[in-house]
Amino acid sequence: MGFSLGFLVGVFGVLVLSHAAYSTVQYRGLLKIMEEEFSGPPITVVAELLLGLVFSLWAALTVPGTFLSIHPHSEENMIVALPANLDFMVFNHRGKVFPVEMDLKLKH
Amino acid sequence: MVSKTEEAQLNRLENQVDNGGGGAWEYLCLVRKLKVRRSEKVLKYGMSILNDLSKRSSLGSEEWTLYEQVAVAAMDCQCLDVAKDLSKLLRKEFPESKRIGRLEAMLLEAKGSWEEAEKAYSSFLEDSPLDQVIHKRRVAMAKAQGNISGAIEWLNKYLEIFMADNDAWRELAEIYVSLQMYKQAAFCYEELILSQPTVPLYHLAYADILYTIGGLENIQTAKKYYASVINLTGGKNIRALFGISLCTSAIGLLAKGRNKEDKENPELQSLVATALEKDYKQRAPDKLSLLTTALRSLKVSS
Questions:
Q1: Distances (CA, A) of B254 to B143, B160, B200, B206, B214
Q2: Residue range B144-167: average pLDDT?
Q3: Hey, where are the domains in chain A?
């Protein structure tokens, strides 16, 4: 529990990759015994590599989080209001004439 | 900068707090983060947190930030007694703090004792001549006293030192607009566009000013800036759409009788009209007839 699907897939992908590495080492050992030249890894290892690559890529893209929009007109990026310039706040405004009818007292 | 999602979040929280659904602290945090001016609500909900001992102690050291926020809100609502109590409490906690000194000077401002506030600010500036907030407070004080030319002078002096302060440029632009000094205001908005070219609202304000100044060339430039607003907002800014159609008709009027070498793109007007009609149909179908008559009158005059 606690692990998302993406994370599990990532772990599986890394396992597949390390198995491919292990198989290659084994294959080279076998070649040495049979005294043949190493021309390339066997097709199963290549397939494993590709599969591991896809799994790891997918995990790397999903686990850290979702993508954020870079469009200036997307909901998150579109600026609809500028902040009120609070550093230049002026208290001498029309609210002074209509004080807030609030019964506020600090009770400490 | 308040983005659309943040605005929606703020409205949702405000609704929730207004209807007694809790979340007052989150609301106050968001108000502080977005720098919006909701003094009355901040005062009301801030005080309810501060008067509740268990809520207040659960904030930890954030408590003092809340004291400051509520104090400023109280000044804005002219509840000076509350503001005084709050600043006294803060002073007791932080006897040496300059920030509290600033708050006390603001309290003097709110009371209207300008000379004393001025004296306080000058003494702060002697200690630390590069304190931006205090420079800004002096500008605001000049503005509050109705001394607009003084405010402009202070602000120009301030901007000579702190040229990268966008808020100050915007304040200066707004002051110039209020005095109908559009050329100067346009200059300020040019600065703002240069420093933050992706904020559509600066483009919009600049275009508005250029349109107000008038003249064929200015209106043509204004149209380009309205177009850039549309580009940046994905066509969701109604004001820019209306701006385009107004500019087009004004250009049509002004360019009448002159040689029409630089022919305006006639498609733009009809595209803008379609976009406006579509938006009105979606959001305010009963006002669609008003829109069509307005657009027709613009087309007739061009």
A1: 38, 39, 27, 21, 10
A2: 93
A3: 5-62
